[in-house]
Design brief:
By secondary structure, the chain is an alpha+beta fold. It is built from 9 helices and 8 strands. The longest helix is centred in the C-terminal third of the chain and has 25 residues. It binds zinc ion.
């Protein structure tokens, strides 16, 4: 964290910091689920990569949307790749425009800086509402994934630009919620990989529903108050 602050200060000082927001009610996370053990690089060149695979694969990965409390709110199947355009569509579908109150204030995703680069570069009017959302990355990403000369991630996604989400050097929310859900979800891969599409989707939807029911009871037992957000609140975007 201190290295990040020093790195940020080295580059442009504090002047261009992203304006912090005080709304931390919603924290979501996207997580990639691409753990195909049969994926092994065979030939690699700077311009092209050929990969061999021991076994077939019908999809690229499943993508989960997970609240920081651990509840899974959405599931998508990605084909071909985990492109940021697909991630963006997943966000739009999960938090539809006719329910503006559903849009979280922050979305946590391990490739957030590339997602944000895409949003800025394409400047699609349909994405304008995502300008209200913060896209942080973790400390490891911010300090190891880019060169010092890459300022975009440091000034838009680095943890030091989200002081409202930090308590010292730690996040104030469970940053492992999606990873924990993903570890659980990945155990179904051997069961579902040869299922038909209908059975595959039905099975995974049911497993997620059962897990959410169990998770709600677990949250209640821990003293929390999980609840559904009233529809009228979802229809209105509340700015805190
Ligand atoms: Zn980055």
């Amino acid at each position: 964290m201190f290295a990040l602050r020093a790195r940020q200060a080295r580059q442009l000082g504090q002047a261009n910091l992203r304006a912090p927001t005080s709304d931390i009610d919603y924290l979501d996370e996207l997580h990639a689920d691409d753990g195909d053990p049969g994926l092994q690089p065979v030939v690699s060149t700077p311009s092209n990569k050929i990969r061999g695979r021991l076994g077939r694969r019908w999809t690229h990965n499943k993508q989960l949307m997970v609240r920081c409390c651990g509840i899974i709110t959405s599931l998508a199947t990605f084909f071909g790749s985990e492109a940021v355009t697909s991630v963006k569509e997943f966000i739009h579908v999960t938090f539809p425009v006719h329910y503006p109150g559903s849009l979280p204030s922050f979305i946590w995703y391990d490739n957030n800086c590339q997602l944000l680069r895409h949003l800025v570069a394409y400047d699609d009017p349909r994405d304008a509402r995502l300008a209200e959302v913060g896209f942080p990355v973790d400390v490891f990403h911010a300090s190891r994934k880019h060169k010092d000369s890459d300022e975009f991630c440091v000034f838009n996604c680095s943890p030091v630009t989200f002081p409202e989400l930090m308590d010292g050097i730690n996040w104030v929310f469970n940053s492992s919620a999606a990873e924990q859900a993903n570890n659980w979800f990945g155990r179904f891969q051997p069961i579902v990989k040869e299922m038909s599409v209908l059975r595959y989707n039905f099975f995974l939807d049911e497993m997620i529903s059962l897990r959410n029911e169990w998770w709600v009871e677990r949250l209640r037992a821990d003293g929390f108050q999980p609840h559904f957000i009233p529809l009228e609140d979802l229809e209105t975007r509340i700015h805190l």
